[in-house]
Design brief:
226 residues; 4 helices; 0% strand; mainly alpha
Length: 226
């Protein structure tokens, strides 16, 4: 609304100024008689001839760029009137429009600053959550690594225990087999020794006594080897 009013005032001032500028030459021509111009030109030409100049000096055309004095006066008056109208009516409307525009820009900047602050807050929150997630994932990975190490150590201890048990059982089985073989060998040896002794002496010997002697002999041999 303020902007439309300012445009209307500026347009009205421009129309009035243009009308004054257009009417000034016509009014000036109307108020200046042609005879006065001719009389003034003749007087100027006589003065030039009296000074000894040529007649062609009287026939020189006036400067087309330089306006007449009355045009300058009316132009100045029109400019002052236009400036007053603009200063009186257009400038307050323009000032109000500029103030409103400045306020809108300031409000937009405040909203942008608020949005920037909110975005930075959201970014900080996101970064904090990301850091927590990384810390949590690191903790889970560390727990998994520790669990894997513990499981590997348990499996190794279990395997070592099973190997030790297997070795123990194998050792026991070997020792049992050796004991059985030794006992069988002992029986075979003493039976064979007793039979050979009976064949040598060709009579039956005291079996229990001889077997005890053979066992003692075998024990002595075994003790000497160990």
């Amino acid at each position: 609304m303020i902007r439309m009013r300012a445009r209307a005032v500026i347009f009205g001032g421009a129309v009035v100024g243009a009308a004054l500028l257009a009417a000034a030459p016509a009014w000036a021509q109307a108020t200046t008689p042609t005879t006065e111009k001719l009389k003034h030109a003749n007087e100027e030409c006589i003065k030039l001839l009296e000074k000894g100049q040529d007649v062609s000096a009287c026939q020189e055309a006036p400067n087309p760029i330089l306006p007449a004095t009355n045009e300058l006066i009316w132009g100045s008056i029109s400019f002052v009137v236009l400036f007053f109208m603009l200063r009186r009516f257009a400038f307050p409307a323009i000032s109000s429009s500029m103030a409103a525009r400045t306020e809108r820009i300031r409000s937009s900047l405040d909203e942008a600053e608020q949005a920037k602050t909110e975005a930075q807050s959201i970014l900080a929150e996101y970064q904090a959550k990301l850091a927590d997630a990384r810390s949590e994932s690191g903790r889970i990975i560390e727990e998994a690594r520790q669990s894997a190490d513990k499981l590997r150590q348990d499996l190794r201890r279990q395997a070592e225990a099973e190997v030790a048990a297997s070795k123990q059982r194998a050792q026991e089985e070997i020792e049992a087999a050796v004991a059985r073989a030794t006992a069988d060998l002992r029986v075979s040896v003493r039976e064979l020794t007793l039979e050979l002794a009976e064949k040598v002496v060709e009579r039956n010997l005291d079996r229990e006594t001889n077997l005890a002697l053979v066992d003692q002999f075998i024990d002595e041999i075994a003790a000497s080897r160990t």
